[in-house]
Structure formats: C-alpha cells, structure tokens
Write a structure and sequence with these properties.
Radius of gyration: 42 Å
Largest sheet: 8 strands, mixed
CATH architecture of the largest domain: 3-Layer(aba) Sandwich
Helix content: 25-40%
Distance between the termini: 51 Å
CATH superfamily of the largest domain: von Willebrand factor, type A domain
Number of domains: 5
CATH topology of the largest domain: Rossmann fold
Shape: extended
C-alpha cells in the first residue's frame, strides 16, 4: 500500500493562478487592517488577531488547492491453472533406451535422489555421464585415504545403479502419477499459487477430479491418438476464475494432422502461457513397426503388384532386419527381404503376382526381434481386389494433342488395359492408305445401337477437345446411353477450343457435372517459373482424398504431400459443381491468374453419377506435366488407376434394377462403413413407399443361405436432390470379413447376388509407430504461447515460475481532505477565536 498527497488544483493552471491572486489580495488587506488596529489595541492583541486571520487565509488557500490523499493498493488475484496430462498409449511405454544421464535427471525430479548437500555432486555426475565417462564418485578433498575412496566409490556406484534401474522400470504415465500424487510437494506448491484444474487428453481432452489422476483414463477418452491442441482449446474459458497458465505433461508425440501451434499462439495472444514438462526420452527405443503400406486397391489377374511398406527401425541401425510379405491364408508363401537400416525409417518394396482371383488379404510383417520392447505393431494387413478382366478404354480427341499422346502411351503400355483410339483430325503423310488412328465415330442404325457400337465393350471413354461437327448430337446421345444404362464411365478432359464451350446439345448438358466455366490463365512471370512453382497445383477435397484413383499413397498425409509437390498447370477450366455432383479437387494457386474465380466457382475435378454410370470432369489438359522428373510414377499411376476404377464401377455388383457398392472395401474397427445404392430410372418411381437396408453378414455365410441375424444393418435413404442414389452407413462392426447384402421391402425387386465385400481391420494406433518423445514440439508450444519448458529435474521450480502468472490489479483511491468535516471545523474555530479577541478588545 502506497500513500502520497496530491493537490487537484495544480491540474488546472487557471485555477492555480486565480487562487494565488486571491490569497495575495487577502494578505494585502490583512496588512492594511493590522496597521489600523494597532492604534486601537495593545500590540499583543494585534499579533493574535494577525495570526488567527492568517491561519484562516492559509486554511482557505489549502481548501482552494483541493488536497487529497491518494492510496494505491496492489491486489494479486489467484487465477486458474490447468494441468493437462497426456494419457495416450505412448505414455504407457517405459524408456529403457534412455541414457544414464537422463535417468539420473528424472530421479532428481521425482525426489528419488538428491538434497542440498549432494546436489553439486549430482551435477558433476550428470556432466560426466553426458560426456560418456565414469563419474567421479568421490568429491575433491573429501578423503585422502585410498581404501576409503574405493569404499565410497563402490557404495555410491551401487546406490546410483539401483536408482537408475528403478527409474527405468517406470512408464511415462507412472512418472506423471508420482509427480501429481496428492501428497507430493509439487501439488501442494501448485495449490498455493492458484486454483488447480486437471485435464487428461488423448484424441480429445476432458476434465477429471484430483482423485482420478492415477486411475484408468475415462472410457470416453480416445487413447489411440494424441492431439496436443485439445487441452489448449477445449472449454478453457468456461469458468469465472480467469485462466492464468496451462501446464502440459506429455511426451510431445502428436499423431493428428492439425497443428497445435495454432492453439498455442492463440493462447499467447491472450497472455495465457503454456509451460511444458517433457516426459520420456527422445532416443528411439528398440522397436520394429510397420508404419504404412502402399498398394493399389484393385488389380487385374496376373498383374505384378508393387507394394511399398514403410518400416520404423528405431534402435536397429546397421543390424539385419527381416521383412516378409505373404497372403494371410498362406504364410508358407512368404517373400522375405533382409534389410540393414541406416536410418530410423526404411522403405521396403515387394513385387507380388496376383495369380488368384478375388479379394486377397496380404500381410506385411517385420519379424519379431528379442530385443524389441513390443511386437504388437510388427505387422499390417492390406486388401487387394484381384479381378479376372482387363480394362477397355476408348480415347476420343479432335487431334493428337500432347495430352492425348501421353494418355495413349501410358495406357497402351499397361498390359491389363486395352485401348482404342478415335482421332478426327490427323495429318496425311502419304505413308499409309488409312490414318494411323480411326477418324470416325460410327453410330449404328436400328435396334441396340450401343451393343453394336465401339462402346459395347468399353469400360472407360475419355473425350478430349473434339468439335461438335465430329461428335454430333447423336454421338452424345449414344454416350449418354453408355453411361446411364451400361454403367460406363465418361471422362471429359477440358479443351481450349471446343470442349465444352462449343457444345449446346441436351445430352451433353445432362452429362457434364459443372457449369459456369471460366478459364484460368497465367500470362505473367508466374506462368514461366520453375514447374513446381508455376500456375496452380491440385488441391484434393476430403472427398477426393477418399477416391482410389486419386490416391498416390495410402497414407492421407503423404498423398497430400505428393499432390502438393506435382508440377503446376498454366491453363485450366473451373466452374460451379451442379447439384448432386461432388467436387474432388480445386486449384491451389501458386501464382496469380488473369482472373481469380469466386470460391464456389473453383471446381476443377468434379464427379457425379448418371444413371448406372458416372462422369468425371477434368478441368486441365496437361496431366502430362506430372512426368517432370518422375517419369511414369504418377502420370501412369493416375490413368492406370482411373481405368481400373472405371472397370470396377461397371462390374460393381448389381442387376437390371439396382447396383450396390461400398465407399471403401476396408476400414478399421470403429470407423463407419458407407454403403451406396443406385437405382435404375423407373424402379423407385413405380414402387411407392419403398424401403431398403444393407445387411452385414460374416463372409463365411454365402448369399442365399440362412446365416441368422446380420452383424449390423445400415438403413438406406435417398440423397437430397438425387432420388436414384441412396446411402447409409453402419458402425460398430468387430474386426473380420463381411458380405454386404441388399434387402428391400418389395419382393418384386430381385436382389439375388447384389452384394459387396468389406473387411474390418483390428484397431490400430499411430501411437505405436514412433515411440520416441518429441521435446522440440513441446518447446515450440511453450515459445509460441509465451511460456517455457520446465525439465523434469527442475520441476520443483514450477510453482515459482507460475507465481508470475497471477493476475495483478492496482486499485487507487483518493481520500479528499479539502471537503472533510475537520477542515470546516477548523475554519469555524479560527473564525470564532478571532471574533472573541476582537470583542474582548472592543473592536467592531
């Protein structure tokens, strides 16, 4: 508390001048009055009168100055401190691979060793262990007796070894439990600083009581994931007590794709620091884990499948590791590769011949090693659908432009793809009587024109920049029949000249899934920079990420990285997706186009179902650019997957009334299985009140047999705006192989054989892929929020650090003196005394 006297009149110069002049005038008049009264009263009485009158003038001057006593108080308000505890699966690990120096630091933080007397000795030991040398067991000058030195060295070495062994047995979670035990000094010191609130987090965060800290995590908590942003963002401002700090105890291993730095930075802007306490060692434990497996979802019989597995090999550098690939039902057919890792992560590529038709479950396994800390993450399964067919593709273009040539070359070299070409304008070189490619798209007369046309056996038709004179209205009517009735796939590739700008046919308008198209052009320097920085790239939408033909890698993060790194395009057509269509990709601008379209008019890759088939719009004519420095790696894979995707759609389970499919043929336990049904036009309209559901039966029970109740049922309903497309989803399926069967309310609809297959993998956790702690990420969170990292050995200082986070408020109060009752009383006393003296001496 601080006190100081202030005069408010000094704040106004005018009032100060006027008050000073009034006091001077009063002093002058008192002096003249004194000269007159000295002739009438004794000198002593005149002095009393002068003193009393001067006292009144001073008192009035003091009142005019408006004095006040300013009292300041600094109030420290207790705030709320959130203790966020990581309870994800990685926190169940022990850190046997940690160095002796790390274990000694942790032991000091846990209070297992150390006091004020021996702490300097422990500091020297830690420095020696960090330098990988034998600690100096005896302090300098402690004893000169060699026998005593040897005795002390042996005792201290034994004691330290026991402490390090006991620490090595503790899991990361047990370390946290010891730190936050109710009677621990840390908890008591934190309670003296502020109101403590405890939160546990994994995939999400939730509050817990102090009694639940050392118990099992809540059942509703997803411990198979770690999202470090969860405790920094969820419900932190719900209480009246202000939040002053967050303390995070974690190994820092983030498994979610979102960046926790965003939440930490937001807290820093609110002056809420985050203090991180790293738990665990950054050294990789000895553990083999199959991180990801990349393989195509569908191949043709006798295809040679290339499968790439990413293997975590922490702790096995320069040591032989055996990786095997085998069908799940034939382990004896395993193909084994022995690798010698030179890094913490190694890619292994297998080639496997798809010689058996049907769904094949392949297993990639890192053979367990006796030095591993765990082996439940040593294998991953992948499903491959092997079909007994080839994809038949028809390429149609106005001329053999670059895009046509590269698509034709990519598909022609694919042994499982049969390609026919129609190119309307070809140069005549006089070498052959007929053009190299067919230049006519013939439309048979009479009944069943589709069955007698070049489209009869096609799975996929790719139409490029052909003119309306070459592909007239009758041709587009035939293409519309190919899509809607035969279940074919049509791909429209944007052209600068004719497609789609020159077409006005009704059939064409019913097929194209976009409208309001505008060109993207780059005519400035941004269109002439390096290929990976020019124009625009391809940004997949969430729906696009799930499409098999757009997957260059099974891991979603790696797939996005590949698409982001592809060379850019300098021309394209984007527009607005029509109702019922799905946007698969938008442009990712790397430069500034001549015109930037509105957000709703940036659809670049668009897909929609039409009847029993589907249409895909590609708003670029330069997929050949993807071959820059990668050759066929992505360009060939894209068009090869597109051909197989089209063949699979045409062969999807169904009959003349309905088709049934699943969004993905394999999921992980806990994920939803999305089921799609497409009705042929006229089926739903003629049956009022039709209901349908998808039933999930074990794959061992064949369709048509009485297999009892289904494991799960998905109710199917029409998609808004698309009455012929019904969807539903089922959840809660246990791991296993399932057959999905369609069941309808009208017995007149034949659903025999309308099935799909789904495989549910056992739950997996990214927590087990990398078990090393990530201290650098925790440091980034602390710095971004204005906090700091508190090492485990300095945990006792945490309460002192948090004292600075208390909210302080300075209260200032002015106690007015000039209008206090004592001032008025003093004035009346002085005036009364002056009046009495005057009357006693006979003055008026």
């Amino acid at each position: 508390m601080n006190h100081h006297l202030v005069f408010h009149a000094f704040d106004s110069p005018a009032r100060l001048i006027l008050g000073g002049l009034a006091i001077l005038a009063a002093a002058f008049l008192l002096t003249r009055l004194l000269q007159f009264e000295r002739q009438l009263v004794p000198p002593r009485a005149s002095r009393w009168l002068l003193g009393l009158r001067l006292a009144v003038v001073v008192l009035l001057g003091l009142a005019l100055a408006e004095p006040a006593m300013s009292i300041s108080r600094d109030l420290a308000r207790r705030g709320r401190i959130v203790i966020a505890i990581d309870r994800s699966e990685s926190m169940t690990m022990t850190d046997a691979q940690s160095t002796p120096a790390e274990k000694l630091r942790w032991a000091r933080g846990l209070g297992l060793i150390g006091n004020d007397r021996i702490n300097p000795r422990l500091d020297r030991w830690i420095a020696d262990l960090d330098a990988e040398r034998e600690p100096r067991w005896v302090d300098p000058g402690e004893t000169e007796d060699p026998d005593r030195q040897q005795e002390l060295s042996g005792i201290r070495r034994t004691n330290l070894d026991e402490v390090l062994v006991s620490v090595a047995r503790l899991s990361r979670q047990q370390i946290v439990d010891r730190l936050l035990a109710p009677n621990s000094g840390l908890v008591q010191s934190l309670n003296s600083v502020g109101d403590i609130e405890y939160r546990v987090f994994g995939g999400q965060a939730q509050a817990i009581s102090v009694e639940a800290i050392t118990g099992k995590p809540p059942e509703s908590l997803d411990i198979s994931r770690t999202d470090l942003s969860a405790p920094l963002a969820s419900g932190l401002g719900d209480r009246d007590v202000p939040l002053t700090a967050i303390v995070v105890l974690s190994d820092g291993r983030q498994t979610e794709s979102n960046d926790p730095l965003v939440a930490a930075t937001r807290l820093g802007e609110q002056s809420i620091p985050v203090y991180t306490v790293p738990i665990g060692s950054e050294r990789l434990p000895r553990d083999l884990a199959i991180s990801t497996v990349d393989a195509p979802g569908t191949v043709f019989g006798d295809d040679t499948l290339r499968l790439t597995a990413t293997v975590r090999t922490g702790g096995f550098l320069n040591r032989p590791v055996a990786i095997s690939l085998f069908p799940a039902d034939s382990p004896q057919e395993a193909v084994v590769q022995t690798i010698t890792p030179t890094d913490d992560s190694t890619e292994v590529t297998f080639e496997w011949t798809a010689d058996r038709i049907g769904r094949q479950r392949l297993v990639v396994r890192a053979e367990p090693h006796p030095d591993e800390i765990r082996d439940d993450n040593n294998q991953k399964d992948v499903l491959v659908n092997v079909v007994d067919d080839i994809a038949r593709v028809l390429l149609i273009d106005g001329e053999a432009r670059w895009e046509f040539r590269f698509i034709d070359n990519a598909l022609t070299r694919d042994e499982r793809v049969k390609v026919d070409q129609v190119v309307f304008a070809q140069p005549f070189l006089g070498v052959r009587d007929e053009p190299f490619f067919s230049n006519r798209f013939e439309i048979p007369d009479g009944t069943d024109p589709l069955g007698r046309s070049i489209l009869a056996d096609a799975d996929l038709v790719v139409v490029g920049d052909a003119s309306p004179e070459s592909l007239d209205e009758s041709a587009w009517k035939l293409l519309e029949t190919f899509v809607s009735e035969a279940g074919g796939t049509l791909v429209m590739v944007a052209g600068k000249r004719d497609l789609p700008s020159a077409y006005r046919f009704e059939s064409f308008e019913s097929l194209i899934p976009v409208d309001g198209l505008i060109p993207l052009e780059f005519t400035d320097a941004s269109g002439r920079t390096a290929p990976t920085r020019r124009g625009f790239g391809i940004a997949l939408s969430p729906e696009g990420q799930r499409e098999p033909m757009l997957q260059f890698h099974l891991d979603a993060t790696e797939n996005r990285r590949i698409w982001d790194a592809l060379p850019g395009h300098t021309w394209g057509l984007v527009g607005r997706a029509r109702p019922g269509s799905t946007v698969l990709a938008k442009p990712s601008f790397r430069g500034r186009p001549n015109r930037i379209p509105d957000e709703e008019r940036q659809a670049l890759f668009v897909h929609h179902f039409h009847g029993l088939g589907q249409v895909l719009w590609l708003g670029i004519d330069s997929t050949w650019r993807w071959r820059h420095r990668t050759g066929d790696a992505f360009h060939h894979r894209f068009w090869g997957q597109l051909a197989r995707w089209a063949a699979r759609n045409k062969a999807v389970s169904g009959n003349t009334s309905v088709r049934l499919g699943v969004e993905t043929a394999e999921v992980t336990a806990g994920e939803a299985v999305a089921v799609t049904v497409r009705w042929r036009p006229g089926v739903v309209e003629r049956i009022g009140g039709l209901t349908a559901q998808a039933e999930f039966h074990p794959a061992t029970s064949k369709a048509g047999t009485s297999a009892g109740s289904p494991q799960a049922v998905a109710r199917l309903t029409a998609v808004d705006g698309r009455p012929l497309l019904w969807r539903g989803q089922a959840t809660g399926l246990p791991p296993g192989d399932y057959q999905v069967r369609l069941s309808v309310s009208d017995p007149g609809i034949d659903t025999t054989g309308v099935t799909a297959d789904v495989f549910v993998h056992p739950p997996t956790s990214g927590e087990l892929n990398n078990l090393a702690a990530d201290h650098s990420r925790l440091a980034e969170l602390a710095v971004a929020s204005g906090g700091e990292v508190v090492p485990l050995e300095q945990i006792d200082a945490l309460a002192e650090v948090l004292v600075g986070t208390r909210s302080h408020q300075e209260l200032t109060e002015d106690v007015l003196i000039w209008n206090h009752w004592t001032m008025l009383l003093g004035f009346f006393v002085l005036m009364t005394a002056e009046w009495v003296v005057r009357k006693v001496h006979g003055l008026p």
